[in-house]
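Final report, section 2: Outcomes. Of the targets proposed, allantoinase is the one most frequently requested by collaborating groups, and we therefore present its record in full.
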Amino acid sequence: MTIPQNQRFLLVKAQQAILSPKHTQGPAQVLIDQSTGKVVEIAIDNKQCTTIVDQNALEVIELDNDQLLMPGLVDAHVHLNEPGRTEWEGFETGTKAAAAGGITTVVDMPLNAIPPTTTVGNFDIKLNAAKGQCHVDVGFWGGVVPDNANELPALIGKGVRGFKCFLIESGVDEFPCVNETEVRLAMDKLVNSDSVLLFHAEMDGCGKPKVEEENIDNRTYASFLNSRPQELETTAIDMIIRLTQEYHEQGRSVNTHIVHLSAASAIPAIRAAKATGAPLTVETCFHYLNFTSEAIEDGATHYKCCPPIREASNREKLWEALLEGTIDYVVSDHSPCTAQLKKQDTGDFGQAWGGIASVQFGLPVLWSEGRKRGVSLQQIANWLSLAPAKRTKLDHKKGEIRVGNDGDLVIWRPESAFEINVADVHFKNKLSPYIGETLFGAVDRTIVRGTTVYNHKTAGLFAQEPFGRPLLQ
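The predicted structure is given below as tokens.
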């Protein structure tokens, strides 16, 4: 095939490539039309791309033998906090950090920005704030709060990927939690659609006696962990499963999704619900698969998140559920804040903001822990690319390297160990429990729709102009 002379192309040559979770690792060439951002040809098994391209219009990237080519990552749970809380994070810094981590698509959560993404008008404000700032492509979750059910169809029409709600107070006044009646009102608007309702699955009403305030030492991680028992999650998840199955059995299916699963005690109920064919998916987070409560020191508030990091035995059960498919994929839940809000001066877990900053480090964290457990690189590609692309309705163009898809790629070195230093952190507030960790899997280059947006070998690291787009289709 001959191509018109005015087009430009990127040809990536790799001795080691994983094009999708379905493909074995091996040599591949990928040709991307930079004018459309689409993959136009793939050659495997030492074959050559045959499209005839003017060499003056061709950029070639040839990987070293220790580098691996994989689909760009999709992080489906990121708080970019803009507009309204840009001292916490913002589109520019958050998407730069994502690019440095091999992520080519993030999906922004509806809360912690002001206003939240709960109405069409608010969504327009967010889209305007994002213009010209994003270094990777960005999708958006809408939000479900009391009294906004009638907004949901119009938000779907505007391009949100689905909707998130809280079953317990969110921590910000502008995004209140919902009760079962309000959940049903939202579900009624989503019946038999391809949208999805996401749940922060913690809920009061577990019947656990409250610890007397005078017995709490808020500097101890144990006190914080005891304040968010597994029953908060299982109570919420039992309700989510009940409603999902009820609507499904009535022929009024609504896709539901549990975000940031932490409590392993919920896994049997989730497994059983999925076995019935209920349209339920589940994510967990890098920090739940990496850290353990036993290793968290008192006052180390940068480990605080909700639901909390739990015991080592709980971590292993989460890994088992991920490996067997009960948990579908893994996300960062990047939820940064300022040092003042983290209460690092007092070490007060009770007062500190709950959230872990990590969007830049998901790939090496998951691979470093996964390789200890015999995880394959194909599984990594599924959990970090294809499965989240499917859940966010982006798998028609994201999540795997195939002809017609966006040319989103990550080039990384699975066997390269590195230490995370503060100077290498690209999100706004350099507060993260991962700083000082030594991990395997250094990211060398990130490519969005055929254009390099991060290259660790260049002085500036990032593309001079933000290249990301909003994902509204």
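The longest strand covers residues 409-419.
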